[in-house]
Amino acid sequence: MQVKRFGVSLEEDLYSELDRLVLKYQFPNRSQAIRYLIKKYSVEDEWEENQEVAGAIVLVYDHHKRGLQTKSTEVQHDFHHLILSVQHIHLDHYTCLETIAVKGEARDLKMLANSLIAIKGIKHGELVMTAKE
Ligand code: NI
Mapped to the 3 state alphabet, what secondary structure does 22-44 carry? Predict the structure, then answer.
């Protein structure tokens, strides 16, 4: 494939950030890092379309927080068609770890994940998605 060249102008902090990524992920050079970032971004962008993907939502919270579990259950029922299974682990006296396996259109999974992560009292929340092909 033909390689195109173009100049990139970056603010100093972005430039150092790029170099930090090059070092951290051991890219052979800045071009390789930019290639990787474009590729990563475009995969995520494709997911924005109505692609079917599968994944998991991970939530960490304190179950003593008032109303949190009720709200979470409500949201999960609103999106029940996307949820395959829910695993609840009691990490310690306070902390719960919930892993929700999901499948559906990427934009719907993101909406579900964002609604859950936004619940007051959720300490940490993350959505991992994978394309089926
Ligand atoms: Ni628990």
Answer: HHHCCCCCHHHHHHHHHHHHHHH
CA 35 – ligand 1 centroid, Å: 42
Whether the CB-CB separation of 92 and 16 falls below 8 Å is answered with no
Cα of 38 from ligand 1 centre, angstroms: 39
Structure tokens at 87: 């695993």
Ligand 1 centroid from CA 66, angstroms: 14
Q: Per the confidence metrics, is the pTM higher than 0.70?
A: no
Q: What's the CA-to-centroid distance between 122 and ligand 1, angstroms?
A: 13
Instruction: Return the pLDDT at 23.
Output: 93
Residue identified by tokens 């390689």 is 3
